[in-house]
Amino acid sequence: MENSVKFKDRNVLYRSVLKELNLQKIEDVYSRRDMGNYFITFSAEKFLIQYVNDRNQLSIFVASNSAPARWVYLSSIEKLINKTAEIIPGDSMDLNSILRQNDFLRGNFDKIAELLNNDNFQNTIDQIEASAKANYKRKHPDR
């Protein structure tokens, strides 16, 4: 993951979607004390997007405007939209993975917004949790 955190300009993580999706930066927090972790939060009008660097691991999260404290990996939303049981990289990514997820975000913005709207959000969370449990059982059938 050599290219995951050595960004003097963190804008490279989200520059490709910033204007196209009309993102408004609402928070940009950097903590030298916490191993250089940072998170950058955007309002996409219909939902929230957060780029995170936690202990040198890059991730993208999304949250509903109706539950802004409940963040989920964008990769979990991708899995729901693509109706796939396979694990999509997303929990810790490099720059190329972030750019791929940006492409997914751009191409599926309306679908993501629908999954995260007030009427569908809880069902979306329930589906993500059920999928995670099923994946765990597949990997660990003896538990």
Q: Could you please describe the fold and organization of this structure?
A:
The chain is an alpha+beta fold and 143 residues long. It has one domain (10-139). Helix content is 37%, strand content 23%. The chain has 5 helices and 5 strands, in the order αβββββαααα. It has helices spanning 15-18, 74-82, 95-107, 109-116, 121-139; strands spanning 24-31, 37-43, 47-54, 57-64, 72-73. The protein has a 5-stranded antiparallel beta sheet. A hairpin with a 3-residue loop joins strand 2 and strand 3. The radius of gyration is 15 Å and the shape is globular. Mean pLDDT is 84; it is low at 1-5.
N-to-C order of helices and strands: HEEEEEHHHH
What is Rg? 15 Å
Major sheet strand order: 1-2-3-4-5
**Helix vs. strand class:** alpha+beta
Please give the alpha-carbon distance between the first and last residues.
32 Å
Shape: globular
**In this structure, how is the largest beta sheet organized?**
5 strands, antiparallel
Approximately how much beta-strand content do the residues carry? 15-25%
**Strand tally:** 5
Number of helices: 5
Give the SSE layout:
Layout: H1 15-18, E1 24-31, E2 37-43, E3 47-54, E4 57-64, E5 72-73, H2 74-82, H3 95-107, H4 109-116, H5 121-139
Antiparallel strand pairs: 1-2, 2-3, 3-4, 4-5
Observed structural traits:
143 residues, alpha+beta, 5-stranded antiparallel β-sheet, 5 helices, 37% helix, globular, disordered N terminus
Can you give me a brief rundown of this structure?
The chain has one domain.
